[in-house]
Amino acid sequence: xxxDEENQLSPGDLAxxxxxxxxxxxxxxxxxxYADAAWASLLASVPVGSDAHVLDFGCGTGLxxxxxxxxxxxxxxxxxxxxxxxxxATKALPNVRFGVAKxxxxxxxxxxxxxxxFDLIVCSxxxxxxxxxxxxxxxxxxxxxxxxxxxxxxxxxxxxxAEPFGLTSDGITKALVGAGLExxxxxxxxxxxxxxxxxxxxxxxxxxxxE
Length: 211
Ligand SMILES: C[S@@+](CC[C@H](N)C(=O)[O-])C[C@H]1O[C@@H](n2cnc3c(N)ncnc32)[C@H](O)[C@@H]1O
Fold this sequence. Notes:
By secondary structure, the chain is of the alpha/beta class. It has helices at 3-6, 19-22, 29-45, 63-68, 82-90, 133-141, 169-178; strands at residues 53-57, 74-79, 96-100, 118-124, 144-154, 182-188, 192-194, 197-199, 202-207. It has seven helices and nine strands; from the N terminus they run H-H-H-E-H-E-H-E-E-H-E-H-E-E-E-E. Strands 3-2-1-4-5-9-6 form a seven-stranded mixed sheet, sandwiched between helices. A two-stranded antiparallel ribbon has the order 7-8. Strand 7 and strand 8 form a beta hairpin. The radius of gyration is 16 Å and the shape is globular. It binds S-adenosylmethionine (SAM). S-adenosylmethionine is lined by residues 18, 31, 35, 58-60, 63-64, 78-81, 84, 102-104, 124-126, 129-130. Residues 18, 31, 35, 58-60, 63-64, 78-81, 84, 102-104, 124-126, 129-130 line the site of S-adenosylmethionine.
């Protein structure tokens, strides 16, 4: 099967919560600055080898995928939003296999794209949206190669906000430990000024130490 046949654009019945954002996602300066900063923070913290097999879970339009893919052997990019993945498909990245899939701990095992093992799994602004964040991290961690790394970036939860959203350092640490990962670091991933605000997401990094 060649890559075009393998890459799947639409499983048909997924409600697309991100359809409206998809068309303009790549042109939003904050989104692009976030991807640039996430990539720089990844390179500063985790080995990214030329032979690495990488999973970008919740890849969106592939902003992080397109930064990682020239540096590694292959990126598998998966997202629940057909519209987001449709934009990724137009980029025709040569060493990227992609698919539309809403992975949960119950569904992930059925997807051959999830087979792994992966040397690196990245989740950029995805984990806070998951129905079962700890369970999903555990399922992803099972797909890491020995010494493989898991890296996530998420907005820090402000419990005093009108509509609290995001994760805490403590919650990320507990999820990484619960997934059997060695916690490499949890803290502010980067600090990027944008208009009159700062983007300061949390970055969590875990490493699989067991065989
Ligand atoms: C804020 S966007 C981030 C997209 C991309 N990672 C980026 O940084 O530009 C969150 C993405 O997570 C995806 N997502 C959320 N839950 C998911 C799940 N269970 N399985 C796959 N993708 C999921 C959404 O479809 C959406 O595209």
